[in-house]
Protein: ComF family protein
Organism: Streptomyces achmelvichensis
Amino acid sequence: MRRWWQEISGLVLPAACGGCGVPRTPLCEKCAHELYGSSARRARPDPEPVGLPEVHAAAPYADGVRAVLIAHKERGALGLARPLGVALAAAVRASASPAARGEGPLLLVPVPSARHAVRARGHDAARRIALAAAGELRRTGTRARALPVLRQRREVADQAGLTARERVANLSGALVVVGGAGRLLEGGRAVLVDDLMTTGASLAEAARALRTAMEQRFTGFDVPAAAVVAVPPSAFEINRN
C-alpha cells in the first residue's frame, strides 16, 4: 500500500520541481518567479484572428514555465495546478477593468480541450487551472468562480502542426455554450481562460460561442476579456513595437 501511494503521490505532488527538476519541491523559487514573479501583460499573436478578445498573460512560454505547463497537462502532475492557478489569477486581474470588478463576480470560463485529449490525459488541464485561479482570486478578496459552460459540439483535429489559418478553420463553429448557461453568465464579468495561447484561434472561437449564446438573451453583450498563463515570447514583443 505504501509503495502504491508513493507512486500516485509522485504524479500529484512531484518530488522534483516541475520546471527544472530540483529535488524535494514541486516548484522551486526560480521557476515560481518565472511563472508569476512579474506583472501580467497584454499579449497579441501575429497574425491576430478575427474576434480575439483582449488577452493578458502571466508569463512567456519558455524554459521553466513551459516545463511546468507540460508536466501538469501531459504528465499528470496535478499538484502544479495551484501555482498555475496563481499565475492565471494575476492575468485575470489584469484583464478585468476596475469598473467591471465592482459590477459582479468574475466568471472564469475555461476553453475546453478536445475530448480525445481529455480522455488521453485523464483530466482537463484548463478547467483544473481555472478552478485553482478562482480559488486564488477569492482568497485575495475578489469574488470569482469557474464556470465551465463551453463544450465541443464536434470533434476537431489535433492543432499541433497546423498553421494559424488552418487552426482557425479547424475550430470554426466547434464550440457551443451548454443549455441554460446564459442565466449563469448574467450579472458577472466573463473572462475566457486557458493555460496557453499560441495563435489565439481557440480563444477567438470561444468568444464567438459566448457572444452568440448571450446575444440570443439580450443585446449589447460585452465581448469577454481573456487571460492565460503563458504565451510565446513574441506575443509580448509585438506590444513593445
Q: What stands out?
A: The chain has eleven helices and eight strands. The chain has one domain: 12-36+48-240. The radius of gyration is 17 Å. Residues 1-12 have pLDDT under 50 and may be disordered.
